[in-house]
User: Fold these one by one.
Assistant:
Number 1:
Amino acid sequence: MLHPFSHINPCTFHTHLDLRYDPKVVALLSRIVVFTAVLFYHTIWHAPTYHRKFAKSQLGLSLHVVTGLFEYFRYWLSTARSKFYTSQTAVPLPDELDLLCSLVWSWTSLMLVRTLRRGDPLTTRPPYQVAACMRPFATAAAYLFRIPSLHTLSVYTLEGFIWTRLAIFYFSRTPYLNDLVKASTIYAISVPLAAVFSIRQSQVPGASVVFLLAMSLTRSLNQWVSRQSQALRDPQIKETKPMWERRLVVGLRTLGFVELDELRVVAKEQALEMKVHDEYVQETWD
C-alpha cells in the first residue's frame, strides 16, 4: 500500500521548508515591521512640524525620505527574491536607478544637515556629512566595478536613521540615562553611535574603522573652513589668499562643511536665526 505522501519529492519539500524560514526573508519582514513602527511614531510626533520648526524645505525632506526608503527596500526585496527563485542568496548590484536615488538622498541629506541644530552640532553633524558623501561614492563604485559589498555598505548606512531613533528612545525612556543628562546630549550620543553600528552591521571589513576616521577628519575640516571663513571676512587677509583657496572655502561652506556659529554669521539664514523650542536643541541655540 502506498504511503499517502509518497508522491511528494523530499527534496522539493525540503526546499520549500528552507524558503519558508529563510533568514533573508525574515530579515526583510523584520525591517518592514521596524521601519513601519519607527516611521509611524516619527510621522505622528515629529514629521508634521519638523520642516516648519527648523525652516526646512518640505520638498527636500520628502525626497530625502522617499529615495532612502525606495533604495533600501529595493535592495532587501531583491535579496529575498533571489533566494525565492534560485534557492541561492545573491547580493544585488545597484543599477542606474539606485545610483540616482543615492545621489538625490545624499544631496538632500547635505542640505538638511547644513543647518542641523539638534544635539551638539560640533559632533552631531559630521556623521551625517560622512554618510552623505560616502553613499554615492560606494554606490557608484559598486555599479562601475561590480562590487556587491559596497552596495551592501551603502544600503546599511541608511539604517542609521532607525538605530538613532531606537537609541534615543532607549536612552530617554529607560532609567539608563533618564534624568541624568539633557535630551540634546542623548541626541548627540545616539547619532554617531547609531551611524557606526549601522556600518558595522554591513560586515564589510574595515568599514566601521574608516567611518570613524572620516568623522574625525570631517570634524577637523569643519573647523578649518570656519577659521578660513573668519579670516576671509577681513579684506586685507582676503587679498593675500589665492583664488582657488577662497573658492574652496566658499564651496565647502555652501555645502555645510563649516561650524554653525560661523555659518550663522555669514549666511544669516532663517533656519539658524529663528528661535526653536525643541528638547533636542541646546539652550545656547534657543
Number 2:
Amino acid sequence: MKTKYSAEFRLEVVQYQLKGHSKVEAARKFGINPSSAERWLVLYGQNGKDSLDNVTRYAEFDLDFKLKVVLSVINDGLSLREAEKTYNLRTKAVITNWLHQYKKDGINGLQPKKGKHRLLKQPKQIEPEQAKIDKSKTQDELLEEIAYLRAEVALLKKRRALRLESEAGAQKRLLKSSQN
C-alpha cells in the first residue's frame, strides 16, 4: 500500500493546525488540499498519532470489514461521514461504493475481487439471440442505459483529470523544494 504523504509530514501539518492555524493556512503552507489537512486533524483527534500512519491511498479490505461498515450505516443509521471517521477510511466514496454493491448483489457484492481491476471491461461478442433481446428494450430502458454510459464516461474523464492534476501538483512541489 502506497501513501502519498509520509506520516511525519502529516503530523507536521496537524501540529501546525494545533498551533491555531486554519486548514486553509496549513494547506497553503504545505501545498496540500485543505480537506486533507482537515481529515488528518480529525484522525489525529480521534485516534492519536498512530492514525496518521494508516492513511493509505490504496487499501484492500476484507469481507468482514466491508460488511461491518455497510451494516453500521444501514442498521445503526451511521452517516457516511461518521462511518468514514469511525472506521478510518479515506473517503465516503468507498462506503457509497460498498453500499451500492451490497444493495445490488448482497454479501457477494462485497467479496474482494481477484486479480487486477480493469478500468474498462473487454466488449463481449453479442450472440444473435442476444441481439434480438436488445431490440425488445423499451425506449425508457435505452435512455436509461445511455444516461448510465454517459455518466461512466464522465467519471472516467474526471478520474483522468484529477490524476493529471495531482501529478502536476506533485511536480510543482518537487520543483519548489529543489529550488529552495
